[in-house]
From TrEMBL:
The active site is at H270, D327. It catalyses: oxaloacetate + acetyl-CoA + H2O = citrate + CoA + H(+). This is Citrate synthase. Belongs to the citrate synthase family. InterPro entries: Citrate_synth-like_lrg_a-sub, Citrate_synth-like_sm_a-sub, Citrate_synthase, Citrate_synthase_AS, Citrate_synthase_bac-typ, Citrate_synthase_sf, Citrate_synthase_typ-I. The lineage of its organism: Bacteria, Bacillati, Actinomycetota, Actinomycetes, Micrococcales. It comes from Salana multivorans.
Amino acid sequence: TTGMVTYDPGFMNTAACRSAITYIDGDAGILRYRGYPIEQLAESSSYLETGYLLSHGELPTAEEALEWEDRILRHTHVHDDYQRLISSFPREAHPMAILSSAVAAMPGHYHEVFDITSAEQMDLATVLLLAKAPTLMAYALRHARHQDKPDVAPEIGYVADMLRLSVGPHRRWEPDPAMVRALDVLLLLHADHEQNCSTSTVRNVGSAGANLFLSVSAGISALAGPKHGGANEAVLAMLEEIRDSGVAVSEFMTKVKDKSSGARLMGFGHRVYKNYDPRAAIVKKLADEVLSSMGKRDELLDIAMELEGIALADDYFVERKLYPNVDFYTGLIYRAMGFPTSMFTPLFAIGRMPGWIAQWREMMQDPSTKIARPRQVYTGPLERDFVPVQDRP
Ligand code: SDX
């Protein structure tokens, strides 16, 4: 009833851990954070409030929410050392590499938050990471664009300032409230997702006793892979390739079904969801709303919707239970907001930050946690004697 997973070491998909944070029913397309359906949180909550829920297990009271947001807003500024670190990267470096490096550099400034037995210090580490990650991401984008790195303006709000710093045309620009809410929802939708590749990486690294920042830095690296968080960037490239090729969408789908082509329908399929990813349904509706409100009827959205329509009616995809996942529509919204495709996965990383933190905290506070040490099925040569080089053929 609680979605608890039992251990069965003999089973290939052995449950990696026990967790009370996120529940997924892949067959039914259900996702809940601490028991709350993702649809209700997307409708009524916020990214920061969801971050509090994931780490603390309960929704904050009005007073707790205000104090939580105020603490985070007081820490969004980053030390000049980070600006120098980011500026030391080649301009064409991928922002995920910069973000992973900058987060890994944080212990140099915040060594005092390593006491995992102190709830206060765990909260401080959480606040610091949630506060500074968006600023580091924005500075990475500005570095690539040869732009300066203006100081933060927390008074306009957490998500609004993330947009201002990243895509604002000038320092005093403030984003439209509808755009702020859309990004807030997108970040919230990505906040956690059980034991996905990057979260498992954070847990594995943390299980060795590595601190929160180093563990999350490893998670950022895992998320960069195109099969994982990098898919939202790959979806845009796929849609643009279809548009620019002049090939009919149905012809592209025929190519995808021909395995020898190696073509994949990016943004489709999921290791756990064998039904529509509930997040994708919310993002698809949001994409339509945001693009319409911005007066941007996007031909790529039309191509995406045509791809989905064909896939949902085609036995090849239906038999393999391939449905849109969270990455299929998100890039279209990010692009409409002014983010380059290179920032799509960093935005996924910012969204997933609260989940990585909550999962790391849960693991570190579990006295039964042992260092991750998966076993293997050995497929190499049987025992044999060494052959000196002069006797080798
Ligand atoms: C995320 O784990 C998470 O929770 C991840 C995530 C999160 O929030 O953290 O949800 C975020 O990573 C979403 C996934 C983003 N990735 C993509 O969109 C990339 C495209 N999708 C895939 O590469 C693939 O679907 C995976 C990696 C997501 C899942 O891979 P699996 O588990 O190997 O796929 P499968 O075993 O379910 O495949 C079944 C069949 C196979 O064909 P057959 O061998 O049975 O003939 O479906 C085929 C696969 O080849 N298939 C696809 C396909 N995905 C699977 N064929 C075409 N296009 C695809 N996208």
